[in-house]
Amino acid sequence: MRYFVICSITVTLFFCILEIECCPRIVSRAQWGARKPRSVSRILPVRYVVIHHTVTGFCNTQASCSSQIRSIQRYHMDSRGWSDIGYNFLVGGDGNIYEGRGWNVEGAHARGLNRNGIGISFIGNFQARSAPANMMAAAKKLIQCGLRKVYIMRNYQLKGHRDVNPTSCPGNKLYRQMNNLR
Ligand SMILES: [Zn+2]
């Protein structure tokens, strides 16, 4: 039993170094069909993790989530005039994490915390509807991954967008669920 525990910890660390085991599956920009960003910059690790919702329809397949994300990117780049999609990562109802700007690039999602925070946005509207368990598990795993890789400071603070800017984001239901992401 003891041998098994030590063995499984060793195997986990080994795969973690290989970036296989300790992070959730992340659908890359190429996989969801992203356009190229216009600029990039960031200094890691960050002190804040900021939770958002997209206030779009829900999606539960990689194809439908990718399509949602492409239209969010189009809106952020063409209507808002930003250099890229605003979020660092998105969480799909299919249980996948989608790469937005990623770990290394400053986002445009929460005024005041963009430089020092990772923005994670749940695809859908979570004002009156709870985020399902698969989305919560994926987001939690992403945060754990960021902590292990020291992209996120150990003493980080978890914020809802409404804690930082005047907005209802990430919705009442998801805001109440946020403690489960720690
Ligand atoms: Zn927000």
TrEMBL record:
Superkingdom classification of source: Eukaryota
Boundaries of every Peptidoglycan recognition protein family domain copy: 24-165
Occurrences of domain N-acetylmuramoyl-L-alanine amidase (ranges): 32-171
Keyword Signal among UniProt keywords: yes
GO BP: innate immune response; peptidoglycan catabolic process
SS bond list: 23-145, 59-65
First and last residue of the signal peptide: 1-22
MF terms in GO: N-acetylmuramoyl-L-alanine amidase activity; peptidoglycan binding; zinc ion binding
Cited Pfam families: Amidase_2
Keyword Signal: yes
Keywords annotated in UniProt: Disulfide bond, Immunity, Innate immunity, Signal
Family: Belongs to the N-acetylmuramoyl-L-alanine amidase 2 family.
Name recorded for this polypeptide: Peptidoglycan-recognition protein
Organism name: Dinothrombium tinctorium
